[in-house]
Amino acid sequence: MIEVRGLRKTFNVYRKIGRFRRERVTAAAVDDVSFAVGAGEIVGYVGPNGAGKSTTVKMLTGILVPSEGSLTVAGLVPTQQRVELARRIGVVFGQRSQLWWDLPLRESFDLLRHLYRVDSRVHREQLDECVERLELQGFLTTPVRQLSLGQRMRGELAAALLHRPEVLFLDEPTIGLDIVSRAKVRDFLAALHRDRGVTVMLTTHDLGDIEHLCRRLLIIDQGRVIYDGALAALRDQFEPFRTLVVDLVVSGPAISVEGAEVVKIDGPRQWLRFHREHTNAADLVARVAAHVELNDLTIEEPGIEDVITRIYRGETA
Amino acid sequence: MRLFWELARREFRRYTTYRAATAAGLFTNTVFGFLRGAVMIAALRASSQGSIGGYNMSEAMSYTWLTQSMLMVVAVWGWNDIALRVLNGDIATDLARPVHFQMWWLARDFGRAWYQVLARGIVPVVTGLLVFDLALPASWWRWFAFALSVVLAVAASFGLRFVMNLLVFWTMDWRGLSSTHNALMSVFSGMVLPVAFFPHWMAVSFRSLPWYQALQAPIDVFLGKGSLVQVLMIQFVWVFAMLAVGQALLVAAQRRLVVQGG
Question: Does residue A213 contact residue A199 with C-beta atoms inside 8 Å?
């Protein structure tokens, strides 16, 4: 559904050198990015601020012209067939609004019917569904400028879906939302994906969004894709270590066993770090238990957040 | 076509939500009508022939009150709806729509203009009619030609404003563009003084420039100055020329587009 090969986007930045002279520096926001997204996939696209996420999304939607490389979305070349493509995709920019600020929410929805030339029966059905699932009923006639952020974002989502797009680009759709609104948006997206098989590309900083919605993850940093794969595999690839936490009956010195090392001691509790490929967890537990008497034990997997933090910081391979 | 209408209708409604601003603006326009009228009367009385640039007293009054009425209709002092969206990055959502960007805004501008005709156009001209002796078109077809010329003036003014707004892609600042626009408009559109008040060679050249098409052209049609067909023809040509320039600029802007704020 989405095909990207060798995509680059460079901007000219001017740097002051001396009183009047300026030097032109070319900066790459997106640098040789390639990936493919199949129909019905839901892909998380993450990376630190300034990594090139939004720039990529803007090229995919035909708003920005790529400097180099090729891309197709739904078989169309975005910048050449922008209008045609716009009919088949839905876009939500979390920090932008496509709704009419001064008019009731409903007016924006009605206009979209004419904009996308949707049959009025289809439009009605789709709108009813969105109103029900996103719980818009209470504020359909409220001017957009009076809506809360959570209400507005649900309105934006509905607006992006009324023409039944095949592909949905969501650029930080949960930014600034409270826990309840965020959960509503997530559940809605999950249902949409399940029932309709819409292809979704989701940009976010909220790892909860990713864990709830995305099986596949693309991580971009400094304009380059540094990871493309399953969320679960990310942990294995970037963080091969696990931690065995043991509560001893009697506090003692650091336990010395083969295949693990104590990284922290707090009274009777000790943390042992081990490599998941080199050391079998069951064997390790057996070895520790043979050494000392245990009250309790747990094995901790690194949080996805920790893993991604380390990737952003460049602490991993 | 349906979309064009729906857009214009919404823009009209959008403007109706700001009633206090409309009332305040209307009051100002009318007060300034009296002020400019008084200056015009003083100038004409002081001139030896009792007319300036071919304008007699009642024509000068018509000019004054028509410019006060049309000021908002053709948005003489500009408008920055697009420029603001470029500067804050909302332009991204506009470009993600399956619609011709310039037509989208042109449709909305006609909605805006029609609102201004009703809300800001009628009162000043009626005030002028009640208080002063205004020169009026003698025949129904001149009224018709005037209406047509106002429509063209809105489109020409839109073309100019569209170009000025898009230039913000390059300057990244609206204030400089805005003051440039206002300076050009005050001199060349006939807003501050009728174009005919300038020396003949200047007046002739002004009439072939785009700013004239946005304000003075319909007034010349109204007052029967110059060849009616010629005035309308030149307006027509400029509308298309300005829209073409705007479209070319849009294509260039999209090539170098930097969407503000990521």
Answer: no
What CATH number belongs to A240-301?
3.30.70
pLDDT of B230-253, one tens digit each? 999 999 999 999 999 999 999 888
The mean per-residue pLDDT over the stretch A263-287 comes to: 89
Number of residue pairs across A and B with CB atoms under 8 Å? 74
Contact residues on chain B for A99, CB-CB shorter than 8 A: none
Residue ranges per structural domain of chain A: 2-235, 240-301
Taking every pair of Cα atoms in chain A, the longest distance, rounded to a whole number of angstroms, is 76
Of A54, A58, A102, Cβ closest to residue B17: A102
Using an 8 Å CB-CB cutoff, list residues of chain B that contact chain A. 2-3, 6-7, 10, 13-14, 17-18, 89-90, 92-93, 95-100, 254-255, 257-259, 261-262
Residue ranges of alpha helices (H) inside chain A are: 53-60, 82-88, 105-115, 120-134, 149-161, 179-196, 207-213, 231-238, 281-291, 304-312
Contacts of A51 (CB under 8 A, 6+ apart): A220, A221, A222, A223
Which of B37, B187, B192 has its CA nearest to residue B124? B37
DSSP string computed for A178-217: -HHHHHHHHHHHHHHHHHH--EEEEE-S-HHHHHHH-SEE
CA B254, CA A108: separation in Å to the nearest integer? Answer: 25
| pLDDT interval class at A316 (50, 70, 90) | low
Supply the ipTM of this predicted assembly. 0.84
Over the stretch A15-69, which tens digit does the pLDDT of each residue have? Answer: 777 777 888 778 888 889 999 999 999 999 988 888 888 889 989 998 888 888 9
CB contact under 8 A, A86 and B96: yes
Cα distance between residue A70 and residue B252, in whole Å:
20
Position B261 in a domain = no
Is residue B260 situated within a structural domain? no
What are the angstrom distances between the C-alpha of B58 and each of B52, B123, B157, B223? 12, 18, 27, 10
| pLDDT value, residue B257 | 65
- A contact test, residue of B97, B99, B112, B115 with most A CBs within 10 A: B97
Q: Which residues in chain B touch residue A50, judged by CB atoms under 8 angstroms apart?
A: 262
Q: Is A142 left (phi over 0), alpha (psi -120 to 50) or beta?
A: beta
CB contact under 8 A, A62 and B93: no
Q: Residue B6's CB: how many other CB atoms inside 10 A?
A: 18
Which strand (E) or helix (H) includes residue A70?
A: strand A68-73
* Nearest alpha carbon to residue A30 among A6, A13, A49: A6
Domain of B211, in residue numbers:
2-255
Q: Give the pairing type, strands A241-248 and A167-171.
A: unpaired
Is domain A2-235 annotated with CATH 3.40.50.300? Answer: yes
Q: Looking at the 3D structure of chain B, how many domains does it have?
A: 1
- Could you say which of B10, B89, B255 has the minimum Cβ distance to residue A96? B89
